[in-house]
């Protein structure tokens, strides 16, 4: 207790230097907590964009479909997979894909049609909420279409526009019809924005002469199971069809998410090195000013260990106060940004990263670990940074120290 009291008194001998160091260390801790929360918020938003809008946690395909994208490479046992998913409450969406040509007045574009079940898509994810204009597909077929944002711009199409469609049907004939635009998606991904046209699965079957066949089943447990657990659960019903998690389907995005911890570690090391140098500077200057005092203490029999302990106690007190203050400031700032995300819509409607469209609202995600670890690390950095000046003070020669000016 005496050691801590002496350490506290010594810290405030130079209030200006100690105050500046305290502020710098507090700011470092707060910035570390806030930055981690913002990065975690960005990563969480990216993962939600992948899982909740299109991809889901797991997808099932014909093994040949990934390489050929042939209209004829369909899933062999769709009903068995759907029954298995529904038995465990896993949301499932069936999809059929086909390519065609769409025109509106003088404008035309090649598109990828997605035949979907609107009710299943609503229970599966948030695709029906990702609309810039209009509404989602109605539950009943009716030759309605929802277009990607950039595709609509290319065609000059708006809600209510009539489109002429020509496709190569599965039986070799030319399919053609009129589609009416009922909605336009906001940014959901670079490639999809340019080419996506969503239609009812029954309209797709009529247009492509393709009844009851699907190229993809997307599955989402909405967090009740991990992607790996969903894949393992569904594999038995899939038979020869290929079952992959979203990380296997999107390795680029998965690698980016996996690198988050490594990047965070580098960021923490840089900040804590800066903070450690600040502590070391404060204690070195304090040690230099008190050389005669340390010389007197050693002359009357004070052990080097006690001096080492006193200087380390100063660093510990400095670390406790700065990290606690920084922890409160950082947690408050992160909590505020979790409730009031940073609005980046003034710069762009959204941001595409590795083909995944992220929201223009950048919010933080606060976790207990994201607060505790920076505080603990700051304590450790403070003590480690104090070892050099403490050792220097403990090794002073009493005679030279007493005559130091």
Write up this protein.
This protein has 405 residues and is α+β, with helices and mostly antiparallel strands. The chain folds into two domains: 2-52 and 254-402, no CATH class; 63-240, no CATH class. It is 55% helix and 20% strand. It has 16 helices and 14 strands. The strands form three sheets. The chain has a six-stranded mixed beta barrel, surrounded by four helices. The protein has a two-stranded antiparallel sheet with strand order 11-14. The radius of gyration is 31 Å and the shape is elongated. The two termini are 31 Å apart.
How would you briefly describe this protein structure?
By secondary structure, this protein is an alpha+beta fold. The protein is built from 16 helices and 14 strands.
Topology record:
Blueprint: H1 2-11, H2 15-54, E1 58-61, H3 65-68, H4 78-87, E2 91-104, E3 107-116, H5 118-124, E4 131-134, E5 144-147, H6 149-155, E6 162-168, E7 174-185, H7 190-195, E8 196-200, H8 201-208, E9 216-220, H9 227-238, E10 242-245, H10 246-249, H11 251-258, H12 260-289, H13 291-299, H14 304-339, E11 342-343, E12 350-353, E13 356-359, E14 361-362, H15 368-394, H16 398-402
